[in-house]
Design goal:
Elements lengths: L2 E2 L6 H11 L4 E7 L1 H4 L8 E7 L5 H11 E8 L4 E7 L5 E8 H12 L11 H8 L1 E5 L3 H9 L5 H11 L10 H10 L3 H22 L10 H8 L7 H13 L5 H18 L10
Parallel strand pairs: 3-6
Antiparallel strand pairs: 1-7, 2-3, 2-7, 4-5, 5-6
Helix pairs in contact: 7-9, 8-9, 9-11, 11-12
Length: about 280
């Protein structure tokens, strides 16, 4: 049976959700991001995730956008399939993200039952899906999936994330540290910053795994660590900011700063019994 979960929303957003729920192929509509999980700024978007069992008719999406939005970019394909714009009513910023339900269910299975780690951001979809609020659930499958995967952090996944990401910090030949050193040597500021961002993708994946919490995504990471993580390397925030400062200037001092950051992470890994290096038991 279709359900619309009661939740206070601006009238324009509530009306949009009701219209999305009527589209053929829609299994559920969820509110994600800071509007669902707290910490929203006054200008934060409303992130609506539409879970589908087949692609939603593009003409129907265009008609909906023309009726309800003052401005809308329909079918953006930069990261996922999205309709992004501003509602006529209240000129509220809304991002509609269309996701294949079978793909998301498969990702959750891979991470939480097969314990498959990625290079960075391993548990983002898990955190996003289970941390989103159900606004519409056609036949209860969304609630069922949330219930199934709202579980304790698997120790096998924690171990696999550390094993996959730690060697990429400095330990192995293609590690980010060595890529940054090479980029410094050729004066390649863009590459230094690119590899530094990749370094932090793996670093924070390790850190959230150590704290057994789903990765929150790319925003407000230091604040999340400060407010929600009990297990944090010594001088974590200062170390991160130091590395970022040197990266922006393409400053060779980034290398000793990275050494310090990795060293403090190693201390925490040893303290937690995860082991520096390969993240051994």
């Amino acid at each position: 049976m279709a359900t619309l979960e009661p939740m206070p929303l601006p009238d324009g957003v509530a009306g949009l959700v009701q219209r999305l729920a009527r589209l053929d192929g829609v299994r559920g509509v969820l509110l994600g991001g800071s509007r669902a999980q707290g910490g929203a700024e006054p200008d934060s978007d409303y992130d609506l995730y539409v879970y589908q069992d087949r692609p939603i008719d593009l003409a129907a999406r265009r008609a909906l956008a023309a009726e309800l939005f003052a401005e809308c970019e329909v079918n953006n394909q930069f990261w996922e399939t999205e309709d992004d714009g501003y509602l006529r009513q209240g000129r509220i910023a809304v991002d509609i993200v269309y996701r294949d339900l079978e793909f998301v269910a498969g990702n959750l299975y891979a991470k939480l039952e097969r314990f498959e780690a990625d290079v960075g951001y391993t548990t983002c979809i898990w955190g996003n899906f289970c941390g989103s609020r159900i606004l519409f659930d056609r036949d209860g499958v969304i609630a069922s999936l949330q219930q199934r995967y709202s579980r304790r952090y698997p120790p096998e996944l924690k171990r696999n994330i550390i094993r996959k990401n730690y060697p990429l910090l400095k330990e192995q030949i293609p590690a980010y540290y060595h890529q940054i050193a090479k980029a410094l040597g050729r004066g390649d500021a863009v590459s230094v910053n690119h590899r530094t961002a990749a370094f932090f993708a793996s670093y924070f994946d390790i850190l959230f795994a150590l704290n057994e919490m789903a990765h929150p995504g790319e925003k407000r990471l230091l604040r999340t660590v400060r407010e929600q993580c009990a297990k944090v390397p010594e001088h974590c925030e200062a170390d991160v900011l130091a590395v970022l400062g040197h990266s922006g200037r393409c400053d060779p001092a980034i290398l000793p700063a990275l050494d310090g950051l990795i060293g403090h992470l190693d201390d925490l890994l040893r303290l937690e019994g995860s082991g520096a290096g390969a993240g051994a038991d």
